[in-house]
């Protein structure tokens, strides 16, 4: 089992071939400097608090990952996808001890995030969202691009809708603070359905009809997304600083300035704090 930590996002890579396989050097570059004890506890929290989604369920002899909306890498089956400022690189990790680059795709500029869902890759940038068909894992094919004003842009997907947060800030130029709901029933023609005003949204996550939006220093918002174009705010937790989330099995993993938190969201109207691990600044 390998845990990849990328700034405020976490991805889990399952190695079914050898539990003693070292982490390849090319992957180690994503790991920030944090104190060893919180790092150890962080691994334990991830193991207990998240699992692969339906699009990448764990299977024998396969590598799978679960990442947040701000992740710059994703793992689907035996392939690792990474995005830089302008490129998408694909690695064959069927042998984790010998990762092999098999593709390099030019994406444009200001690329920020990647989110895999149902055979597609959703690429977030400061100018929009790109959708790639990933049926052939070593040959992603661009289907479309949804463009918006220049802004920071993480994305998650559920069913026929993509949820994109846009925000302003030092690194985000003159972006606006909002949540876009985009209809992707036809991924070749994404359509903006509605925009919701936000304070300073960062990462987000969705599980079924429950949508979580990190509002940075303002806290965490929880929405009922039963009707995606008519989101209903159910809770706004204001005493925490949040950057990204991973919702799985009714446990929400939250990453922020204050550390790593786990919430029980079996009752989406009232999240219950399960644990908190402070991280060194």
What report would you give on this structure?
It comes from uncultured Cytophagales bacterium. This is LVIVD repeat-containing protein. There is one protein chain. The chain is mainly β and 281 residues long. Helix content is 6%, strand content 44%. It has a single domain, classed as YVTN repeat-like/Quinoprotein amine dehydrogenase (Methylamine Dehydrogenase, Chain H, 7 Propeller), CATH 2.130.10. A four-stranded antiparallel sheet has the order 3-4-5-6, with no helix packed on it. A four-stranded antiparallel sheet has the order 7-8-9-10, with no helix packed on it. The protein has a four-stranded antiparallel sheet with strand order 11-12-13-14, with no helix packed on it. The two termini are 26 Å apart.
Question: Main traits of this protein?
Answer:
single chain, 281 residues, mainly beta, Methylamine Dehydrogenase, Chain H, four-stranded antiparallel beta sheet, 22 strands, 6% helix, disordered N terminus
């Amino acid at each position: 089992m390998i845990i990849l930590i990328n700034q405020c996002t976490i991805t889990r890579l399952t190695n079914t071939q050898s539990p003693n396989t070292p982490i390849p050097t090319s992957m180690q570059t994503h790991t920030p400097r944090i104190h060893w004890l919180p790092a150890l506890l962080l691994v334990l929290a991830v193991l207990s608090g998240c699992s692969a989604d339906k699009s990448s369920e764990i299977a024998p002899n396969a590598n799978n990952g679960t990442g947040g909306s701000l992740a710059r890498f994703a793992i689907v089956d035996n392939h690792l996808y990474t995005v830089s400022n302008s490129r998408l690189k694909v690695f064959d990790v069927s042998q984790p001890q010998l990762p092999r680059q098999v593709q390099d795709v030019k994406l444009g500029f200001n690329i920020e995030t990647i989110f895999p869902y149902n055979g597609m890759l959703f690429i977030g940038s400061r100018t929009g969202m790109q959708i790639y068909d990933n049926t052939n894992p070593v040959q992603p094919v661009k289907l479309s691009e949804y463009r918006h004003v220049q802004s920071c842009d993480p994305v998650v997907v559920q069913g026929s809708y993509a949820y994109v947060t846009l925000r302003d800030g030092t690194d985000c130029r003159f972006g606006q603070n909002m949540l876009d709901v985009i209809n992707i029933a036809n991924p070749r023609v994404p359509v903006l359905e509605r925009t919701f005003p936000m304070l300073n949204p960062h990462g987000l996550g969705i599980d079924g009809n429950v949508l979580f939006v990190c509002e940075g220093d303002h806290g965490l918002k929880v929405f009922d997304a039963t009707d995606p174009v008519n989101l209903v705010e159910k809770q706004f937790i204001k005493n925490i600083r949040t950057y990204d989330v991973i919702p799985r099995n009714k446990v929400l993993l939250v990453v922020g300035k204050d550390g790593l938190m786990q919430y029980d969201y079996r009752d989406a109207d009232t999240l219950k704090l399960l644990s908190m691990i402070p991280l060194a600044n």
